[in-house]
Structure formats: C-alpha cells, structure tokens
C-alpha cells in the first residue's frame, strides 16, 4: 500500500486530473476508505489518496503475470552500471543558476532561443 501512496504522491501532477486504475494484489486497498477508525499514518494516506480519481482492481498473485515475471527476471547487467542517486534538487539548482546568469549554463540560453524562434546566438 505504501507503494501506491508513494506513486500517487510522486506523480501527483500527472495523475491529479486523470482517472487511474491501480492493479494490485493488496485487496485491503479497496476497503481503505470505508474504515472509520484508523491510525494517524493511515489517515494521512487516505487524505492524500482522496484527491485522486482512481479505481482499485484486485489481481490475485497467480494472475498477476507482469509482477511475477519481473520478480523472476534474471539481471545479467547487475554489475555493469554504477548506481546513481536521483538528484531531485537539480531542477531548482539549474533554475537558480539561470536566474543569476551563471556562466556555467550558456546551453540553456541556446536551448531557449532555439525553441522560441529557431535561432541560436553565436
């Protein structure tokens, strides 16, 4: 259930005005909104999920072929790539640099000029 809450929170801007279908083997998620007395964390999740228009479809474990296949898939490239951290602050840092006319971001001006008028200042 935490995965569903995390996904809706993470992709909020894409899901907020759209209808969604959640396929899950967690059948209790269907009855989450009918629960009258719940712990504080569960109530926070309910409040967050109430903003979205979604339908929960219960998929039994044996019929959930996609998740079953992905869990059994062998990873032949396990040690090929170095793990990278997701830098969620990149966008804000970049916008801050652009706002200050930082010389390390001239590529952004070229990109903006090209998209605005199909030209690049050299």
TrEMBL record:
Record keywords, A-Z: Endonuclease, Hydrolase, Nuclease, Nucleotidyltransferase, RNA-directed DNA polymerase, Transferase
Quick check: keyword Hydrolase in the entry?
A: yes
The record's section on CDD domains has: RNase_HI_RT_Ty3
Single GO molecular function: hydrolase activity
**Pfam families found in the cross-reference section:** RT_RNaseH
TM annotation in the entry: none
User: Where does the source fall among the domains of life?
Assistant: Eukaryota
Domain Reverse transcriptase RNase H-like: start-end pairs: 1-52
Task: Check the record and name the PANTHER family matching this protein.
Answer: PROTEIN CBG26694, PROTEIN NYNRIN-LIKE
Please state what the protein is called.
Reverse transcriptase domain-containing protein
Q: Which organism is it from?
A: Tanacetum cinerariifolium
What lineage does the source organism belong to? Eukaryota, Viridiplantae, Streptophyta, Embryophyta, Tracheophyta
């Amino acid at each position: 259930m935490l995965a569903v809450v995390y996904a809706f929170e993470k992709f909020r801007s894409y899901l907020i005005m759209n209808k969604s279908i959640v396929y899950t083997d967690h059948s209790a998620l269907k009855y989450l909104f009918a629960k009258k007395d719940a712990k504080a964390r569960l109530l926070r999740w309910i409040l967050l999920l109430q903003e979205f228009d979604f339908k929960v479809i219960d998929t039994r474990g044996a019929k959930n072929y996609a998740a079953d296949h992905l869990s059994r898939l062998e990873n032949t490239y396990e040690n090929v790539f170095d793990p990278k951290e997701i830098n969620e602050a990149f966008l804000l840092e970049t916008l801050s640099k652009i706002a200050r006319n930082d010389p390390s971001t001239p590529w952004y001006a070229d990109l903006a000029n090209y998209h605005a008028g199909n030209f690049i200042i050299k």
